[in-house]
């Protein structure tokens, strides 16, 4: 099917304005839907310690704190992990006990930007009110060790994908190559998945090579009709295989397949669900390098792909909903940008990927049906360093004849400038100092799309 027709069906305007789409780029001042009252944390797996011994003896590392840290912190706070210190032993945790309590009380740790009560996501990182209280009590009572002989353990939240069907490997070690005077380098690696038929991507895991310079990884597929454009880009960049691709892959209609940022777990859409990769497509892996910590560093990042067996029950598509017509005036601390689209048909939403740059303050997506708002995702304190591909526990059915609205708020005041810059009028763009108001939706591809 012609690529453009895909857009007709959903009318995800703002990215493409398609005749006949009803779209509204203004307004959208409605309130986020009613949010249920919840306590500070979601319910997590049983972490081992029983309530009775908590009520009786003192809170100790081995009986109470170890399972909490293992379930919620150690995935990052481990040797070689992305956090700057480890939390995987009593010796490591004891000296920082007070800091741990402060971090969980303030909500800064574990990092999990989506607001509770708006969307139920997989792999939620959250500690319960009870766990927070235990860490505080432990810190305030001198961080006692307890008895290692009957230590409780926690569950590390990992995704085991097994043997990949294909490993996307550029085939060479890349040497970071930022433009003159800069520290950021975006490189697109072109890899042939050698498909003799259409395949469907069920899951993937990025394996960053040099984690002191790899900032993010985005994986796209580019259909056969993009081949000559890719060739052109590769010919332009003679410094290494692939091509330089600041901000985006520079193709006319690439399909986003998934991505990785620090802290994300492997993306797994689940059995019998997948995004189509057309036969004859190339994979384009965009890696954003930030060379600050290792100037001249080399990297060999790979992505492991897992396909469904045959055509899956649910074919997924990842499509952008975006307000590209941004006008964020210099000095404006309260800039609000919205975009709405009217859905002619019901849609099953499997995930969301909200995205802004450094001036972003908050971002949310909701749908409105018969005057009722339903919140889909809400990130009240946008943090550029903690982005994610958020998959719902269960897909959300957005009814037909509803309006989906993305709202982005920006602070372009002098106090909120990155790297000590002076405020300037900011518009849509791929540079880190430009802005975006964008949310990818991961949806079940409706018939005919
Ligand atoms: C997804 C990865 C990740 C998880 C999970 C995580 N941390 Fe962190 N943590 C980091 C990173 C990265 C830093 C350093 C940068 C920063 O502060 O954001 C950090 C910093 C900290 C700090 C330093 C001060 C602060 O608040 O930034 C403390 C304390 C901390 N973490 C405690 C915890 C505790 C306790 C848990 C579990 C309840 C936890 N972290 C879970 C990644 C993580």
Automatic annotation (TrEMBL):
Compositional bias per record (Acidic residues), positions renumbered to this chain: 42-54
InterPro entries in the cross-refs: Cu2_ascorb_mOase-like_C (IPR014784), Cu2_ascorb_mOase_N_sf (IPR036939), Cu2_monoox_C (IPR024548), Cyt_c-like_dom (IPR009056), DBH-like (IPR000945), PHM/PNGase_F_dom_sf (IPR008977)
Keywords: Disulfide bond, Heme, Iron, Metal-binding
UniProt-recorded Gene Ontology molecular function terms: copper ion binding; dopamine beta-monooxygenase activity; electron transfer activity; heme binding
Domain Cytochrome c per the UniProt entry, residue ranges: 52-143
SUPFAM superfamilies attached to this UniProt entry: PHM/PNGase F (SSF49742)
Region entry Disordered, spans: 24-55
Highest taxon of the lineage: Bacteria
Protein's UniProt name: Cytochrome c domain-containing protein
């Amino acid at each position: 099917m012609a690529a453009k027709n895909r857009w007709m069906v959903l009318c995800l305007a703002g990215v493409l304005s398609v005749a006949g789409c009803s779209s509204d780029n203004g307004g959208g001042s409605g309130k986020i839907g009613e949010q249920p009252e919840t306590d500070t944390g979601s319910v997590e797996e049983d972490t081992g310690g029983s309530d009775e011994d908590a009520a009786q003896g003192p809170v100790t590392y081995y009986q109470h704190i170890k399972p909490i840290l293992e379930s919620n912190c150690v995935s990052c706070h481990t040797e070689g992990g992305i956090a700057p210190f480890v939390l995987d032993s009593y010796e490591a945790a004891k000296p920082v006990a007070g800091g741990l309590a402060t971090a969980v009380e303030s909500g800064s740790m574990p990092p999990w930007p989506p607001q509770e009560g708006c969307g139920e996501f997989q792999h939620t990182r959250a500690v319960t009110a009870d766990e927070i209280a235990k860490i505080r009590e432990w810190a305030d009572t001198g961080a006692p060790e307890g008895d290692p002989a009957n230590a409780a353990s926690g569950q590390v939240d990992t995704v085991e994908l097994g043997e990949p069907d294909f490993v996307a490997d550029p085939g060479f070690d890349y040497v970071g190559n930022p433009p003159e005077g800069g520290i950021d380098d975006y490189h697109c690696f072109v890899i042939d998945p050698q498909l003799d038929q259409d395949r469907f991507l069920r899951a993937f895991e990025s394996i960053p090579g040099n984690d002191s310079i790899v900032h993010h990884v985005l994986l796209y597929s580019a259909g056969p009709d993009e081949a000559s454009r890719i060739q052109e880009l590769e010919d332009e960049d003679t410094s290494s295989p692939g091509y330089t691709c600041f901000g985006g892959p520079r193709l006319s209609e690439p399909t986003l397949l998934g991505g990785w940022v620090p802290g994300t777990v492997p993306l797994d859409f689940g059995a019998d669900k997948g995004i189509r990769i057309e036969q004859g497509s190339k994979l384009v892996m965009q890696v954003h390098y930030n060379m600050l910590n290792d100037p001249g560093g080399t990297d060999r990042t790979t992505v492991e792909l897992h396909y469904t067996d045959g055509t899956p029950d649910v074919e997924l598509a990842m499509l952008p909903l975006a307000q590209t017509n941004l006008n964020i005036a210099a000095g404006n601390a309260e800039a609000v940008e919205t975009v709405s689209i009217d859905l002619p048909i019901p849609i099953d939403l499997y995930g969301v990927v909200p995205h802004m740059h450094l001036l972003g303050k908050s971002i949310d997506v909701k749908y409105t049906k018969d005057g009722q708002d339903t919140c889909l995702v809400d990130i009240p304190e946008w943090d550029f360093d903690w982005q994610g591909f958020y998959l719902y526990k269960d897909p959300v059915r957005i009814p037909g004849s509803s309006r989906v609205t993305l709202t982005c708020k920006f602070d372009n005041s002098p106090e909120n400038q990155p790297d000590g810059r002076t405020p300037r009028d900011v518009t849509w763009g791929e540079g880190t100092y430009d802005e975006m108001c964008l949310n990818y939706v991961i949806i079940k591809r409706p018939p005919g799309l």
